[in-house]
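Hi everyone, sorry if this is the wrong subforum. Our group has a chain we'd like a structural model of before ordering constructs, and none of us has done structure prediction before. Sequence below.
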Amino acid sequence: MDVLVTGVYGRCGTAIIDHLHDRSEYNFTYYNRSDRPDDHPYGGYDTVVGDISEYEMLRDAFEGHDAVIHLAAYPYTDGDWGEIFPPNIIGMYNALEAARDAEVESFIFGSTNHVMGLYEEEHKPEIYSLEHDLVIDHEDPVRPDSYYGASKSFGEDLGRYYVETYDYPMRFYALRICSVRMPENDHPYGDAEIGVDDGMWERGSPEYEEQVARMKATWQSRRDFAHQIDCCLQDDSVEFEIFSGVSDNRRRWYDLEHARAKIGYNPQDDGEEWDEPPE
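Answer:
Right subforum, don't worry. Here is the predicted structure as tokens:
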């Protein structure tokens, strides 16, 4: 299967490199705004360099592929509309239009939990506890918490429009990715430890412990994320579906049963199994 990955050198794309690149059934092409030098941990891969807001270059990259994993986007909740619009709105349209024109069958979209972020804002910090009983699934009303979250909600809707209106793409998978981190922070203490390194709080402080509690709910390990991508690539039954991108955390508030039933997603990790950061 020939697979194009946009935005490959971010937190999620590098997890695909780490866990799926060497799989014999996949032939990956990587598309990114910039390449990496050969001595970089993710250097040495053949990369098409381009901007997703520029259609012609993106369209050329889609040619001959069976699937696209579209991760390229402005990824921060504090972004203003001027920062969000070119990559997340124009870029999303360009990616779907390129998939339609190049007859790409499967489109896997890196959406975000921030499409539903106001549920967290309303219920935090209680929502981070094991005792909280809120569960959000793909049928609950969208409640974006930012321009970023709203732009990803737009991407989901545009994906539905394309698969229900055009011949291609034939399948659209929206993954509402929660907390995937780079390898050195791929654990529930990752964000809390980043805050310590940045001087934002001290280890063991209330702020530190709240970050740990949140990550124990929202963490999606890199191997679980790559496994979910693999489940989508192997599927041929879905037309349009939305799935939570999260590990099997006991204190999560995002539903996993839909992904288990539809695509066989079987995450291996649980944030509750960690009681301290790795040494």
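For your construct planning: Strands lie at 2-6, 27-32, 47-49, 67-70, 106-112, 171-177, 240-245. The first helix runs from residue 11 to 20.
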